[in-house]
Amino acid sequence: MSLERDSETTFDEDSQPNDEVVPYSDDDTEDELDSQQPAIEPEQNQINRSAAKESQEPLKKDCSWQVKANDRHFHEQPQFKRKIFLCFKKSKYAGNAIKTYKYNLVTFLPLNLFEQFKRAANTYFLVLLILQAIPQISTLSWYTTLVPLLLVLGITAVKDLVDDIVRHRMDNEVNNRACEVIREGRFKSTKWKDIKVGDIIRLKKNTFVPADILLLSSSEPNSLCYVETAELDGETNLKFKMALEVTDRYLQEENAMANFNGLIECEEPNNRLDKFTGTLFWRNRSYALDADKILLRGCKIRNTDFCHGVVIFAGADTKIMRNSGKTKFKRTKIDSLMNYMVYTIFVVLILLSAGLAIGHTYWEQQIGNSSWYLYDAQDYSPPYRGFLNFWGYIIVLNTMVPISLYVSVEVIRLGQSYFINWDLQMYYSEKDTPAKARTTTLNEQLGQIHYIFSDKTGTLTQNIMTFKKCCINGQRYGDCRDGAGQLPSHPEQVDFSWNMYADGKFLFYDHYLIEQIKSKKDPEIQEFFLLLAVCHTVMVDVSDGQINYQAASPDEGALVTAARNFGYVFLSRTQNTITISEMGTERTYDVLAILDFNSDRKRMSVIVRESNGRIRLYCKGADTVIFERLHPRNLKREATEEALDVFARETLRTLCLCYRDISHDEFEAWNKKFMEASVATSGRDEALDKVYEEIEKDLILLGATAIEDKLQDGVPETISKLSKADIKIWVLTGDKKETAENIGFSCELLTDETTICYGEDISALLQTRLENQRNRAGSTTHSSLRMNEPFFQGSRNRALIITGSWLNEILLEKKKKKKKKKLKLKFPKTEEEKQKQIEKKRRAEAYKEQQQKNFVDLACECKAVICCRVTPKQKAMVVDLVKKYKKAITLAIGDGANDVNMIKTAHIGVGISGQEGMQAVMSSDYSFGQFRYLQRLLLVHGRWSYIRMCKFLRYFFYKNFAFTLVHIWYSFFNGFSAQTAYEDWFITLYNVLYSSLPVLLVGLFDQDVSDKLSLRFPKLYVLGQKDLLFNYKKFFRSLLHGAITSLVIFFIPYGAYLQTMGQDGEAPSDYQSFAVTAATSLVFIVNLQIGLDTSYWTFVNAFSVFGSIAIYFGITFDFHSAGIHVLFPSAFQFTGTAPNALKQLYLWLTMALTIAVCLLPVVAQRFLSMTICPSESDRIQKNRKKYLAEEEQWQRRQSAFRRGVSARRSAYAFSHQRGYADLIASGRSIRKKRAPLDAVLGSTTGGTGAAETS
After folding, report:
1. pLDDT interval class at 1155 (50, 70, 90)
2. For an engineered disulfide with 305, which of 219, 301, 407, 431 has Cβ 3.0 to 4.6 Å away?
3. Backbone phi, then psi, for 1126, in 5-degree steps?
4. pLDDT band at 26 (very low <50, low <70, confident <90, very high)
């Protein structure tokens, strides 16, 4: 049994997860991964050069998607259709239009009403309206329900309509983008939404790709196409794609493309961004297709004048849309709680109505039947009368279920959304980007966040790499110094005007280094910058006399740019030469070999021959791999190590530079091995790495560079504030582990005191825990697999850094290998075998779930978690696991299309309008321009919204209970006859006019402390996380408070009226006078009570409280006038009641006593609680003047981040894939003679372009 268990879940030790690769997605199986070849150099046209390979038929088992070029109707054939409803069929190929809106002109009214009546309260009031139309049970006029119901439905419908119009506009903006498509043999401008599978399209520089397309040709040599994939994976460095050689050769002219009729067979649409398998059939030959030939929707064309492609996947079938996940309907925690409370009120209402109906039945039997003067000419039995009265009380007590609650909540949320939109302190002026609440239903949830899941690239960082410092020959440079090496009185920027190639954006303050370079006295400094100018795989592009660099990684681009500004300018390259301007002198070096970077080597080298015949190897790489390969006699090693430690303390990304001279004989011998390894048919990468090792030894250390991966402004302070608010921050990124770790230190998520755990560390911990849980489950009869003891003992300052591969490994997400089909006899399984199989699957699922819960428990014990090299789906999975097992409120923030799934999965999604397009913003609930605004969104707007909503709900329930329960006490004195205690018009207008405005304004404007104090004391945020301000306990307290208030409102006037005589000698104790007294007392009490609950008084609040009372008197006197009774005698029956009753001093004294008995205990309780045990906000409010005075003098403290001497070095980030070395060496990036654009457009005349190097 134990062996069977082990085989189910133990990790494959032979294939440890690779930290450097992005793991497969849910669409992949393990055997597909195993069959994938290692990352080969981009010899993408090899298959086309071999006739034998060209004629090979690929395996078609997974290639069921067929596309015919220039044939829009090909996919409308019957075999490509699927059944959608009954006999109706539709093509399985999606159109290119995207749709995020919910309604159109026809569906708006029915769909919106259907959605609104899914709310229990709305349906309840509709039923109530129908009941009120039945004369036998109606105790209230129909308009008392219809008016509020129409108001609620109307306001909500208008809000939904406005939201959907915004979605329509955004969809139209994307769908109506223009693109050139072949129509009738010519390229014609077409809208994105009209593009179909099979269309051939032309894309120009700096435009987005509208669909997933197969690249056919481009303006670049060998039909190269440079793309930026920031929308897909968050990386801003350029990647290149290359067309098939056959399409590059034959599909350049417009008429050739119009006649192209190739058939593409490929995989079905899936979400794997870096995987594609397919075949092109054309001219009786087949050509293999892979991901390097596909341009995905969301990519941006860069440095390529134009390119052509055929659409393979459109719209919802594109990989980016497949990764975006489903749009989930999001509701707040308070929404759910509110619904449960409304259900509770339903139950209470039914029980009360049933009890009062039974009371009426009993009263009829004992008193009603024997009282001749009560005979109503209806011979109903007492039980039947009781049944009718049950429905009568349902109608009378309907105000216990507050219909205006929902519309009031919507108005408050709408107002809070506008406050976020209008907040100038969240406006990013550099890009003219205001904060935007894109949904109006989640504001109070912003005050309850437990976990934040953040992207890294473009969210925490600016995506800008800057050369900051360096160490050359043991001497550090980059600090602010003058030309003599002394500290200046004030920093001055270095003037690079002496360098005609300087780019003008580079900022540097060490004048001493510039003087050293100009003097040319130190040969090491010259070698240092020469190495930076030579040892790289950067491509150069000259346009309008300006030099532009295209690098495989942003770091490499920053280093070459730095060398350019210091006078060592990379000008051009050919297949085997590189031209440099060294302090104004042009020199060309022969490039003998480029030893490219990969994730195992963590370094790259270039071997060059100088004009004097000397052969030299230049190498740059991570300090860990460089120091192992240094010559034993490197005098400056210790000084360089010290410099690296200094750079590490400043969280700069470091890189070591070194060189060695190579003799001609040594190079010839090595080159022979190098050529053999280059043409190896199997294990080429391993063979090359082994050959590289032979030459990269006995290196002479030149120094080190330090690059800053620039954080956005205010990121460390924001993370610090949010941490103090007890919010945990997890970083989920597709970037490298070293880069993500480095940013963790930069933004102070990690410190030198942090104990860092990695995937391999926690894997053993989790495996042990799972085994213990299995054993415990096996030894006990009721198998609780839970163990609550913590994973870590001692220090709480721990962090977890885990890669996507380890996540799949630990969470048991690895796919099982497909078994190869063998021809064998199949026998039907016995019932016992089926049961065993089911039990095995069930047990495996239980262990998987337990392992996932263990992982979440372990991760949540860490102060910070960084998940790197994760796919968009894994990001969403991590968020979902925390939601599932921690029941915590989550927020996801990102700026790219790779963050969309995560943003949709979290309770709240925040999009940053950044470098990576608008995909994240379009899918988000809130958006703004910088990460630092998150602290204001949560600690100010979120906290205020939560406090306001909770105060609103507590008071709303209170005022409705105080209002409605008076009917119950009155029932004991009217034979449980369902007679109302108030006038009908008072019941209609109570929630609409007499008590709605003050509470609405508290829900919009109230604040316990100012925004500055909210930011200064993040601990105030904890109230929302713990649900302390609104829960079932608070609800029942409001119910009890309302019940006591209703008792006082009824019984004090009742006692005062029992045996009294008015000043005019008449008794004021008639029903109508009593109703006016009770109603007036109620209006005074509920409006003064909200005054006591208000923390932040403004003129508007004061006006609303006293204005509501004034409106009550105005309307009451009007409705009780003789004139309106004459016009509508049946609707207004309280003629003269208010003027007669309210002129009696006795009634005013009665009302004063009622108000005092209700409110004085509340005042006393508030005073005692603030004096004896004040809350944190009470204490801050009490000392607010002192704090605000300090605030004016207070400045942000200097960062407490001091890392001491540490062995940790911040790693240099090479590209996530191989660089452009193979491309350069193959010569395919070199511009050939190419017909100009007019020839490509179909002109018969051709031209020749001058050959130039790229």
Report:
1. very high
2. 219
3. -65, -40
4. very low
Selection from 69, 60, 54 nearest residue 285 by Cα: 54
Paired tokens of 520:
């040319």
Query: Is pLDDT of 906 > 80?
Result: yes
E strands present in 980-1114 = none
- Phi, psi at residue 24, to the nearest 5°? -70, 165
Torsion 513-517-520-523 (CA) sign: positive
Phi–psi pair at 580, nearest 5 degrees? -125, 145
User: Is pLDDT at 1084 greater than 90 in this prediction?
Assistant: yes
* Region for 1167 from its dihedrals, namely left if φ exceeds 0, alpha if ψ lies in -120 to 50, beta otherwise: alpha
Tokens 């051709």 belong to 1246
More confident residue, 1164 or 115: 1164
1046 close to 966: Cβ distance less than 8 angstroms: yes
Long-range contacts from 28-37, C-beta under 8 angstroms, 24+ separation: 28/272, 28/275, 28/815, 29/815, 29/816, 29/817, 29/818, 30/814, 30/815, 30/816, 30/817, 31/817, 31/818, 32/275, 34/817
Average pLDDT, the chain: 81
Specify the pLDDT at position 947: 95
Alpha carbons 569 and 1145: distance in angstroms, whole number: 97
Q: Known catalytic residues?
A: 455
Would the pLDDT of 1241 be above 60? no
Is a pLDDT exceeding 50 seen at residue 14? Answer: no
pLDDT of residue 85: 66
Q: What is the DSSP string of 1138-1149?
A: HHHHTT-HHHHH
Q: How many helices (H) and strands (E) does the chain have?
A: 45, 35
Confidence of residue 940 (pLDDT cuts 50, 70, 90): very high
> Which residues carry a binding-site annotation?
455-457, 556, 597, 620, 653, 733-735, 869, 875, 895, 898-899
Classified as helix, coil or strand, 1008 is: coil
**Residue 351 DSSP SS3:** helix
pLDDT, residue 914, reads: 61
How long is the chain? 1254
| 312: its two tokens | 């393979």
Q: Which helix (H) or strand (E) holds 582?
A: strand 577-582
Q: Which of 1022, 1147, 1124 is nearest to 1078 (CA)?
A: 1147
Tokens 């392992």 belong to 851
b/e per residue 431-442 (b: at least 16 CB within 10 A): eebbbbbbebbb
Distance of alpha carbon 792 from alpha carbon 1003, whole angstroms: 44
Does residue 405 contact residue 151 with C-beta atoms inside 8 Å? no
Taking alpha carbons only, the member of 605, 522, 518, 505 closest to residue 566 is 518
Other beta carbons less than 10 A from residue 1036's beta carbon: 13
At 1193-1212, the pLDDT tens digits run: 654 444 433 433 344 555 55
* Strand pairing report for 436-437 and 926-928: antiparallel
pLDDT tens sequence across 735-759: 777 778 888 888 888 888 888 888 8
Which spans in 495-574 are helix H? 511-519, 523-534, 554-565
Residue 405: both structure tokens together? 């609650």
pLDDT of residue 84: 66
What is the C-alpha separation between 791 and 1069, in angstroms, rounded? 73
CA distance 1160 to 963: 19
CA distance 1121 to 1125: 7
Contact 277, 214 (CB under 8 A): no
Please, which residues bridge with residue 471 across strands? 476, 704
